[in-house]
Amino acid sequence: AHTPPDDLLHADPDNLYGAALAAFATAQQREPGTAKVRVYNPDREAHGYHSAHTVVEIVNDDMPFLVDSVTAELANSAGQLHLIVHPIVRVQRDKVGNLTDLAPAPRSADTAGGETVAAESANVDAGLQRESVMHIEVTEQPADRLDAIRAGVANVLADVRAAVRDWKPMKAELEAVIQRLESEPPDLDATELQTGIEFLKWLADDNFTFLGYREYSFEGHGRDAVARIDAESSKGILADPAVRVFEGLRDLGALPPEVQTFLQQPQLLHVTKANRRATVHRRVHMDTIAVKRFDKAGSVLGEQLFVGLFTSGAYSRSPRDIPLLARKVERVMARSGLRPDSHDGKTLLHILENYPRDELFQIADEDLYDIAMGILHLQERQRVALFMRRDPFERFVSCMVYVPRDRFSTTLGLRLQDILAKAFNGEVSAFYTNLTEAVLARVHIIVRTTPGDIPDVDKQALERRLADAARSWRDHLRDALVEDRGEQAGLAATRRFGDAFPASYQETFTPHTAVYDLARVERAIETGDLALNLYRPIE
Predict the structure, then answer these.
(1) Considering the chain, what percentage of its residues have pLDDT values greater than 70?
(2) In 10 A of CB 118, how many CB atoms?
(3) Sign of the Cα pseudo-torsion (237, 238, 243, 244, in order)
(4) Beta carbons of 371 and 389 less than 8 angstroms apart
């Protein structure tokens, strides 16, 4: 009933009828508390109808995040999605899960009818439970892939169920942390403690989607140090002790010394990205908030780890409205010594306001100040610039590359990724492009690295390589003409002939060869005499 008409307009009515009957048959029986998943290639003889696509049918208890989680998994494992039908129905089942009654879900009170419909819905729902029925068509898959796709969808649905089931207990854990910090504050800087408490309260105010919770205890010293998981406290997707958030965190003794030092610092909160991508809601690297626990002497005993996703408000609001970020912005502005109402002060504040939000949560004050001031000094200069930040756990390097907007292209973006991945002996895990009315485009590239195996990189040399990659054949021609004729004459020749060379010429000849040819071109234009160059390739 609620499927966009255009999605059904060209479908054969018999096939739609067959698909509806197939979904109805799948919903006839379902074990309580479990998801039913079926993946098949419809065939007239076997299923009574035909589809050019692979069909995924799902029957599950109605709960948040189902559609976006399942479609993200299918887009990742099966390619293009061609049709999504996902009604919510009210059902009645017997003790073994057989369907005994079925009705469409009532309209919600906030969309049609207000309190009267809400009351009617409550009466109609008596004895019935809400279920989600999905019929999704994806690009046709070979028969030997169907079981793997079904297993992937089933795993995602299990994660959704775990996260939704434990949402309230996980939030209660956060509220207990806040209460403990207020009633038994650790011996930390008062401002840092207050900022941390305000940030945790902000998270609890529906600004964080809780997916998992886990407690670690740090035991041993040096190479014998380990992080033990308290299995009884684990919740959500982390209820399974085998699920890892950070690779190598359990074996602390094997971590690089600087990483071990970082873990033992008397710092209340640490916000970073998990190694794992979320299977619930959005398929991105999950956000983690670690709250350290201290003994009376101030030594770190362990940490309480909340895993999930910041809600859209964390990305759309000004950082000055978010505790923790507001203090970072204040400290950077104060350290800069710039008046907030001055030109440079306003520009710096704009840079901080538009800084990649995930980076702003994770970055230390020192790094933020250095990078923000570097961007301020760059301003509208049309040149390539690189700003880097290494993850304290050495799992990735965050690289922001500023490129003149008119030079940026998909091809250049891939070239920049390749250069950075090779420089840090890693691979690109994420790539974001920010194009605005400014003369510079910002390319944010995350390179996944191996802890303890990140090469020492010469930033200036790497920046020059990126700049060279961003230069076009025309740019090199301009340099060659300026070198040959001087700046004024060289730039004039570039304006006249810079776009005169076809792609086939640029692929075959160097800009210095073009300088030689241009001299003959100009002579031919002036005299009318044909100019011809017979040459032998150097190789």
Answers:
(1) 93
(2) 14
(3) positive
(4) yes
Pairing assessment for the beta strands 385-390 and 427-434 based on DSSP bridges? unpaired
Radius of gyration of the chain (CA): 30
pLDDT band at 537 (very low <50, low <70, confident <90, very high): confident
- The distance in angstroms from the start CA to the end CA of the chain is 70
Which two tokens mark 402? 């500023």
* Order of strands across the sheet that contains 427-434: 385-390, 396-404, 440-448, 427-434
Alpha carbons within 13 A on the beta-carbon side of 335? 14
Q: Name the strand (E) or helix (H) holding 495.
A: helix 487-497
Q: Each residue of 420-452: pLDDT tens digit?
A: 999 999 999 999 999 988 899 999 999 999 888
Bridge partners of 388? 399
Q: Is 456 exposed, middle or buried (0-12, 13-18, 19+ CB in 10 A)?
A: exposed
In this predicted structure, the answer to whether residue 108 has a pLDDT above a threshold of 80 is: no
pLDDT at 118 over 60: no
Spatial distance between the Cα atoms of 55 and 83, rounded to a whole number of angstroms: 9
What three-state secondary structure class fits 19? helix
User: What sections of 363-443 are H helices per DSSP?
Assistant: 365-378, 410-423
Reduced to 3 states (helix: H, G, I; strand: E, B; else coil), residue 37 is strand
CB burial class (10 A; 0-12, 13-18, 19+) of residue 183?
exposed
Q: How is residue 94 written in tokens?
A: 């017997």
**Residue in this structure with the two tokens 């923790």, named with its chain if needed:** 324
**Rounded to whole angstroms, what are the CA distances from 383 to 97, 387, 444, 469?**
66, 13, 16, 12
Element (H, E) at 38: strand 36-40
Report pLDDT digits (tens) over 144-185: 999 999 999 999 999 999 999 999 999 999 999 999 999 999
Give residue 24's pLDDT band: very low, low, confident or very high (50, 70, 90): very high
Q: Which distant-in-sequence residues (6+ apart) come within 8 Å of 403 by Cβ? A: 384, 412, 416, 440, 441, 443, 470
Closest CA to 427 of 403, 441, 448: 448
Other beta carbons less than 10 A from residue 380's beta carbon: 8
